[in-house]
Design a protein that fits this description.
This protein is α/β, with parallel strands linked by helices. Helices cover 35% and strands 31% of the residues. The chain contains five helices and nine strands. Helix 2 runs parallel beside helix 3.
């Protein structure tokens, strides 16, 4: 079974930055996606999905009227499935490291997303991701799995998290290192 490392912490603490640094360090061995803010005139208007192989899609935006909502954002489940879930499926099939940023309220609306995350965690791949800090039955169950390590990112430890995650990954017998 795989080793899964999930970063959690308050919004804006730097989880996505850490995930991007880890993915950069792992290079072509990592596939998956991260999320990025969409800003217009200095204000956050939404979030996009960016795959590690360069594809993008709008995950959520204030201008999306239909579909599920989280706060002021409408969530585009089709884009999540076609871009984000497809990237996870490619990663499971073709890379030793699966990157998923993030496992949060917006993404959990998609059954295909939940299934892809579960498949990745149960595979022989190493999974590196971010996860919401709030309570959610599905997320709570994921966090409690024996192969899952949850690291809380704080202002005091965030500068050392990249090296900590890389050390944990390289210590894993499942990655062949």
């Amino acid at each position: 079974m795989s080793k899964t490392i999930l970063l959690t912490g308050r919004p804006g603490i730097g989880k996505t930055t850490i995930i991007r640094q880890i993915a950069q360090h792992l290079g072509d061995a990592a596939q998956g996606f991260y999320t990025s803010e969409i800003r217009e005139h200095g204000q956050r208007k939404g979030f996009k999905i960016v795959t590690l192989d360069g594809e993008e899609g709008i995950l959520a935006h204030t201008d999306i009227a239909a579909g599920p909502r989280v706060s002021k954002y409408g969530v585009d489940l089709r884009a999540l499935d076609e871009v984000g879930v497809a990237a996870l499926e490619r990663a499971i099939d073709g890379a030793p490291y699966v990157v998923v940023d993030e496992i949060g309220k917006m993404e959990l609306f998609s059954e295909r997303f939940r299934e892809a995350v579960k498949k990745a965690v149960q595979s022989d791949k190493a999974v590196i991701g971010t996860v919401m800090s709030g309570r959610n039955p599905w997320v709570d169950e994921l966090k409690s799995l024996p192969q899952v390590t949850v690291l809380k990112v704080t202002p005091a430890n965030r500068d050392g998290v990249v090296l900590r995650v890389l050390d944990l990954l390289h210590a894993s017998p499942d990655t062949g290192r």
